Amino acid sequence: MNAMDLLGAVMNSGGMSRSTEQRVENSFGFPGGPGRGGAQGMPSGANAGSMMDILKKVAGSMGTSAGTGGGGLLGSLAGAVLGGGGAQRQAAPRSMGSGLMAMLGALAAQALQNAGAGGAAGATASGGTGSLDDLIAGFRKPEGREEEETLENMALLTVKAMVNAAKADGRIDDQEMQNIVGKVKENGVTPQEQAFLLEEMRKPMETEAIVSAAGNPQIAAQVYSASLLAIELDTDAERRYMDGLARSLRLDPNVAQYLRASVGIQA
After folding, report:
1. pLDDT digit string (tens) for 138-168?
2. pLDDT tens digits, residue range 198-226?
3. Residue 72 belongs to what H/E stretch?
4. From CA 151, how far away is CA 98, in angstroms rounded?
5. Which of 34, 69, 222, 235 could be disulfide-bonded to 108 (CB atoms 3.0-4.6 Å)?
6. Pick from 16, 211, 219: which is nearest to 117 by CA?
7. How far apart are CA 239 and CA 121, in angstroms?
8. How far apart are CA 179 and CA 170, in angstroms?
9. What is the C-alpha separation between 120 and 86, in angstroms, rounded?
10. Band (197; pLDDT cuts 50, 70, 90)
11. What is the rounded distance in angstroms from the CA atom of residue 234 to the CA atom of residue 232?
């Protein structure tokens, strides 16, 4: 099974929530995000450029296109989400998955940096360090089979986190599951990947396993960001879930606040 393809197919299909695409779009233009100078209630600090600026640097370091309308890392994500439905259908699942990983990595790293906890964004802005955090954040290509497996495992954890968050309100029924799998199927995923996604949606909540797999602050912040893309937060159950997830992941409150604001959640 190819987790990066599955992640990209989920995004190409509109994500796990009706708000997924809007939240991704919000993160690109977040006024308190990387380099835009502090939204109300957000910590000020070292800002190294907008989300688009950071992803352009990532795309350049990986030798891919930095244009919003073209192919490659940034083109697949920005073109698919910001360019509307037509572009969305044209994005290759693996490129979309890689683009999403870079976006989540940039958000997480900047949130950690602003909270004084470090993060991979500074390394990326200065040319990259080849660190494991850079790999996990999707800021550089994997080198060798072991790193490829590490990145695939991060993509798989991202899928699981998104599915888990989508189940938080208890309202994902069989028909909705089939609709999601049907849309993912249109994006060319294998029967094995379709079956895996359906099985994940049918499972009971597995928050503890997801938290246990988040082995460092960068991963924890990315897991939280991915969860924000997959949940509506319009019920008490969903709000309790995200509050509990932040505590379980041991996120600094400023990190959680930054990530929520970056995708357009103000409360």
Report:
1. 788 889 999 999 999 999 999 999 999 999 9
2. 999 999 999 999 999 999 999 999 999 99
3. helix 72-82
4. 10
5. 222
6. 219
7. 28
8. 17
9. 33
10. very high
11. 5
